[in-house]
Each structure stands twice: as structure tokens, then as C-alpha cells.
């Protein structure tokens, strides 16, 4: 995910943050609202993909589950859902970063009937330096029935 300046566009549909834990970090449980912003609990939404063996049926749902993986610091899921041809050896997640909202701006293909797709999104986050936004157009492919993140376009 590369950082690009935010452009004015339609209003953000921010995800609902989970309740802070004693450490100040959001404690996401199966009953918490899903970080991806869909109207479902984490356990019924992205958490089922993180726990496996369920896989996201569309490129957009994989994108949402990967965003949620950043929010809950699930590096193993990020690596599992990354195309092996472009996957790095490790993912270093910053626990000081708090992911605060996801906007899906556009999708192309990526349905259960496609083998490739793209998702353009805007991810909002806060870290010690203040709030920021990441905008990216990601490419996805389906291998053996499972969607994987390939790279950014």
C-alpha cells in the first residue's frame, strides 16, 4: 500500500472503532463491530477469514479483510492472503498505528466469476504524528478458488 495525498471526493464512510483496551489500543473481539466498516461483527465478517478456513468470495471482501488484518495486527493473515509471487518474507506492523476507516472507491471485476479484479480504496489511520490517509488501487487474482492480493497498480 502506497501513500498518496487524499483528494476531495464523496464523504468517507468510516468504520466504527472498537472500544479501547486498558492499554489504549482497540481491543477487537468477535462481537466488536468489524473494522472494515460493514454492518457486521468482526467474528461474522472479516474475523472468519482471519481464523480460516473460510476465504473471501470477492476481491472487495479480501481487500476489506486485509484492512481489518492491519487493524487487528494479523500479519500472518496478510502474508497468507498475498500472492506468493509478490509476497514479502515478512510484514512489520506498527502497533502505534490505529486504523480508523475504510472507503471503497471503485471495484473492477473481482466477483466469484472472475479470475482478476482491482479495488480502489482509501484507508484512514492515525499514528503518533497525527492522522493520515492511504489511497491505493490494488490488484487481486484468484488462485485455486481463493482471492489473493497481488500488488498496487
Model description:
The protein is α+β, with helices and mostly antiparallel strands. 16% of the residues lie in helices and 29% in strands. A four-stranded antiparallel beta sheet has the order 1-2-3-4, with helices on one face. A hairpin with a 2-residue loop joins strand 3 and strand 4. The protein is globular.
Going across the major beta sheet, what is the strand order? Answer: 1-2-3-4
Q: Biggest sheet, open or closed, and with what strands and sense?
A: 4 strands, antiparallel
Stretches with pLDDT under 50, minimum 5 residues:
2-25
Strand content: 25-35%
**What average pLDDT do the residues reach?**
87
What are the secondary-structure elements, in order, as H or E?
Answer: HHHEEEE
What would you say about this model in short?
This protein is an alpha+beta fold. The chain has helices at 46-51, 59-71, 75-80, and strands at 98-109, 116-127, 130-143, 146-152. Helix content is 16%, strand content 29%.
Write a concise keyword list for the protein shown above.
alpha+beta; four-stranded antiparallel β-sheet; 3 helices; 29% strand; globular; disordered N terminus
Amino acid at each position: 500500500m502506497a501513500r498518496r495525498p487524499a483528494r476531495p471526493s464523496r464523504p468517507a464512510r468510516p468504520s466504527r472503532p472498537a472500544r479501547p483496551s486498558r492499554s489504549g489500543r482497540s481491543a477487537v473481539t468477535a462481537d466488536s463491530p468489524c473494522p472494515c466498516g460493514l454492518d457486521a461483527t468482526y467474528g461474522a465478517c472479516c474475523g472468519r477469514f482471519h481464523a480460516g478456513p473460510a476465504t473471501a468470495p470477492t476481491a472487495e471482501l479480501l481487500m476489506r479483510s486485509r484492512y481489518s488484518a492491519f487493524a487487528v495486527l494479523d500479519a500472518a493473515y496478510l502474508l497468507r492472503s498475498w500472492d506468493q509471487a509478490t509476497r514479502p518474507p515478512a510484514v512489520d506492523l506498527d502497533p502505534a498505528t490505529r486504523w480508523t476507516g475504510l472507503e471503497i472507491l471503485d471495484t473492477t471485476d473481482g466477483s466469484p466469476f472472475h479470475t482478476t479484479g482491482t479495488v480502489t480504496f482509501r484507508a484512514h489511520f492515525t499514528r503518533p504524528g497525527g492522522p493520515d490517509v492511504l489511497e491505493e488501487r490494488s490488484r487481486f487474482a484468484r488462485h485455486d478458488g481463493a482471492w489473493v492480493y497481488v500488488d498496487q497498480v
